[in-house]
Amino acid sequence: RRLDNALTIDDLRKAARRTTPLSVFDYVDGAAESEVTADRNVQAFRDLTFHPDALHPVADPELEVEVFGRRWALPLGFGATGYTRMMHHHGEAAVARVAQAVGIPYGLSTVGNTTVEDVRAAAPEVDLWFQLYPTSQEINAELIRRAQNAGCSTIVLTCDTAVSGKRFRDDRNGLTIPPTLRPATIVDMARHPSWWVNKLTTEQVSFASLKFLESKYKFNEIADRVFDSNLSLDSLDWIREQWKGQLLVKGILSAEGAAEAVEHGADGVVLSNHGGRQLDRTPAPITLVPQVRKALGDQVPILVDSGIRNGQDIAAARALGADAALVGRAYLYGIMAGGQDGVARAYEILSTEYRRAMQLLGVRRSIDLAARHVSLPDT
Ligand code: FNR
């Protein structure tokens, strides 16, 4: 009922704010430093202009696309986000199940709270990706092997986390993973009882994929260990040698960076500023799509994320030259608002909006979305 009342992703965000402890909501909603980039990401989509084809009726648009030789129901994937069982006890398995049910890919994070094996068991057919935060070669090799055994099609190497971005909301809220009991936590429990009941009655896992690290190091040390300040093109070369599947590099913010990643073996790139959670004051990735497409040519898949809150945004990404878009917060607001049903609702909202955008643009198939249908400011 509550989910039916959510008509937009922003409605899900408001519902999430009510159902979830503030420290958890802020971990998702917040971003780095002054949060300039996080705002800019969303604003960049609002600043785009659509140019519909007149008198091109579209009764039943064909939404699906083919990326990496696979059929996606929509040019959209659920991107990797850490600690999803903190947002809601349904966690990563629920996101994977929805992705499987609708026919889009899901990327599991290295710092997910569910192992790649458990996600695969929950969603045997989903196009599963594994997002890699490389640590030591020994651990990387192990994670790559497990991703392969779990039938992941793709490894996503995240390259914008030399160190963790500074997110002041988390400091101010005293966020710890897992949550620690403080006086403020007890007040919060009274305000969000069902979140806490679920938390306390389901199994707690902090670093599912890196469990073997957990016994060796304290929590805060692990966080530092997960991010590799030495990640380089050599690391990419090494991963390329180890991994025979699809390899994506995520966190690219320039045509040069994209070309370099492809020269070093990436099969595609994800233009991303990590949803504004890493370096603040970076460009909105959507504005870079045309120049990166020009640099890489027509054959290399380009994905884009950061700031997608509406199906129109996905249509714009596609029209500007991306193969597909990824979302993080959009489905996380959904899971916080209503667990697996909330993730399904987020997808339903985005796909309905995308379909309507196609009809109003007069575009019958996703592959027909073209540069003439959207313009960036000053172009
Ligand atoms: C993320 N993101 C992320 N990326 C990644 O490569 N590994 C990770 O573990 C995480 N964790 C994570 C947690 C949370 C709470 C958020 C919101 C994001 C970044 C994510 O994959 C994606 O780049 C952004 O979420 C895209 O921006 P939007 O859609 O959230 O605006």
TrEMBL record:
Record keywords: Flavoprotein, FMN, Oxidoreductase
Top-level taxonomic group: Bacteria
Pfam assignment, any one: FMN_dh
Amino-acid positions noted as binding glyoxylate in the UniProt annotation, renumbered to this chain: 27, 133, 167, 274, 277
Gene Ontology molecular functions: FMN binding; oxidoreductase activity, acting on CH-OH group of donors
Binding-site residues for FMN, renumbered to this chain: 80-82, 109, 131, 158, 250, 272, 305-309, 328-329
Needed cofactors: FMN
Annotated ranges, domain FMN hydroxy acid dehydrogenase: 1-379
Active site: 274
InterPro entries in the cross-refs: Aldolase_TIM (IPR013785), Alpha-hydoxy_acid_DH_FMN (IPR012133), FMN-dep_DH (IPR000262), FMN_HAD (IPR037396), FMN_hydac_DH_AS (IPR008259)
Signal peptide region: none
Gene3D superfamilies hit by this protein: Aldolase class I
Family of this protein: Belongs to the FMN-dependent alpha-hydroxy acid dehydrogenase family.
Name recorded for this polypeptide: L-lactate dehydrogenase (Cytochrome)
Originating species: Microlunatus soli
Biological classification of the source: Bacteria, Bacillati, Actinomycetota, Actinomycetes, Propionibacteriales
